[in-house]
Specification:
Two copies of one chain form a homodimer. By secondary structure, the first copy, chain A, is α+β, with helices and mostly antiparallel strands. In chain A, 49% of the residues lie in helices and 17% in strands. The first copy, chain A, has helices at 13-21, 29-39, 50-57, 61-73, 91-101, 104-120, 162-170, 173-186, 188-208, 252-273, and strands spanning 77-80, 85-88, 123-130, 133-141, 155-157, 211-214, 221-227, 238-244. The structure holds a DNA duplex.
Amino acid sequence: MGAPESAAPLSQPAATFSYEHEGDRQFATTLARGLEVLRCFTPTEAMLGNKEISVRTGLPKPTVSRLTYTLTKLGYLRHNMRLGKYQLGSAVLSIGYPLLASMSVRQIARPFMKELADYCSGSVSMGIRDRLNMVYVESCRNGNGFSTLPDIGTAVPIAQAAVGRAFLAALAPAEREAVLNQIKVKQPESYRKYKPQIDKSLEEIRARGFCVALGELRREVYAVGVPMRRTVDGEIVAFNCGVPAFSLKKGQLEDDIGPRLVAMVRTIEASLGMH
Amino acid sequence: MGAPESAAPLSQPAATFSYEHEGDRQFATTLARGLEVLRCFTPTEAMLGNKEISVRTGLPKPTVSRLTYTLTKLGYLRHNMRLGKYQLGSAVLSIGYPLLASMSVRQIARPFMKELADYCSGSVSMGIRDRLNMVYVESCRNGNGFSTLPDIGTAVPIAQAAVGRAFLAALAPAEREAVLNQIKVKQPESYRKYKPQIDKSLEEIRARGFCVALGELRREVYAVGVPMRRTVDGEIVAFNCGVPAFSLKKGQLEDDIGPRLVAMVRTIEASLGMH
DNA sequence: GGCGCGGGTTTCAATATTCGAAATCCAATG
DNA sequence: CATTGGATTTCGAATATTGAAACCCGCGCC
């Protein structure tokens, strides 16, 4: 079977388990593996058979079989018996909701984000870190159709996305180094390719409050990123604003949209401050 | 369990595990328990200590300790060490995203939903089943502030919500009986209280295509529900439209909004049909 | 300071689960 | 009807998990 070599750099999760957690008597391997199974599914690979999961995770087939069986019983997977494949089940959504609901910054920020998204005919999103990605917890786009939509739960690589670099800029130097080092180790090609841009972005944020990413994540989308200057509930929050490249006038991103995103974030910070 | 059971606290999920899956050599208990830990968190109880989790799940403290340790290492929980409590981590969001992204019906439906939400100054949501709840996979509300927002991932009890009864109406009779029976067993008070309304709703849908729920889930929100007449990807999809009770004119829900929601769903079905 | 209390964590032997090669099953295909 | 590819079952050995009890620790109280 032509296992489609995805562009996305998957490391070896199986190896990860064996090496990183060996001898840790606290660590519940089965739980980690089950969750790793859920993580195999992506928007483009929404249906997977046990074999494919086994290949992706590096877990033995019988183990995968039991894990998918369990996850299916619990509603986290659905079994399509005509294809003999699994896909994510509705239960995966409900475990994320309490997190969203308890982040009041989302409600506060939403109108400001919508306003900016409308102004620049693009999309404005709020993200927090997950591993080496930023996950969107809120996203607004202008009414008329922006090709593909950013959506809550979308994960974008820290290294490539404006929102990711904004996040890096907000980190304490020591932690920033730690994250960069993880990227270096786990996504070496990505690191080589984007490290200069990352450094430039950090400098931009110091100088102007925002950074730009010109089609580095998706060729046709140019974006600016801004971090919040305070944490929310101990979590660093960053914003981006992405606009279709073709609709941008020269200099508009740097001179208009960037500063507006900065202003928006400052407004949100202020609204948060007064609780 | 996941359902917002108001009065009656909790059944015994631990017992649930032991009894329901004893002797099932396929079933990965540790995985199920870990996921059950994640399900303990709710919007109103966003932070829990090991002891609280232990009480809610019925699992012994050391077991919970190890599970939270594992989940924290993986990013599904965050540890707040000033309080010694846990809260959901960003990783819970990213496992749900591929499911959302692969449901193309969401994109198709969104503009129609938005239009209706604007028209009736309320919110329009699309839900699928999770256990005895309906989970929202898409939700639109009109711009001006509707008190509390329905959001993607929100779970509402099938028995009480218009969207849940719409779902029931779309089920094959045998499966409907099965679900109703589960409700009877697992949410007995809820069943006693709402069974007559449920029957009425089923009849309404047969007769007019939609059902109404007048403040049964939230006192101040009146809602109508409509099921889709075809499954999407094997999954039954239902819609609701909720409006603040005070802003409704007499008869408006039945004579105007209900039929409009029906029309909306028919439009979406048609758009889906032509792929 | 001493005491008790309410978590949280560690210990450790008993127990249950997982491993994984090989066998089996099953449905689709030639 | 033989073949093929994947999913599932089998089973003894290897390993991980379990959970009662003990331990730890910070806190408030007397």
